[in-house]
Amino acid sequence: MTHQPNRKSNRLLNLGLDLSYTVHEKIGCTWRGPEEDYHMLNTDGSVQQVGNGFGGIIRDSQGNILLGFAGSSSKPSVIYQELMTIAVGLKQAHLLSIAKLEINSDSLGVINIINGEVRP
């Protein structure tokens, strides 16, 4: 199945992104927003043979995208990439004057480091 823009993907078009891709397997998921008056930072980092990278997105409590970012680093550590994502996201949230921010990461290692449960 090849995806063509529809009403839901208009948000991406508003960001200047024109997407066309093939869905190999459908996996159901939903986004759970933060509490009212909060913003949410969703993060991810990756280390692969072809390169390392990180990225994040900041949304308001209604799910509106306020900012998206991506970067790369030569450090071949997923923990490092995940921590970089959170650091950049916190800086961007500060620049946007966001005071209440929920951070979501899929890295238990990073969560444990931030909570002081393990040393980096």
TrEMBL record:
Pfam families: RVT_3. Gene3D superfamilies: Ribonuclease H-like superfamily/Ribonuclease H. InterPro entries: RNase_H-like, RNase_H-like_dom_plant, RNaseH-like_sf, RNaseH_domain, RNaseH_sf. CDD domains: RNase_H_like. GO terms for molecular function: nucleic acid binding; RNA-DNA hybrid ribonuclease activity. It comes from the Eukaryota. Residues 42-117 form the RNase H type-1 domain. This is RNase H type-1 domain-containing protein. It comes from Coptis chinensis.
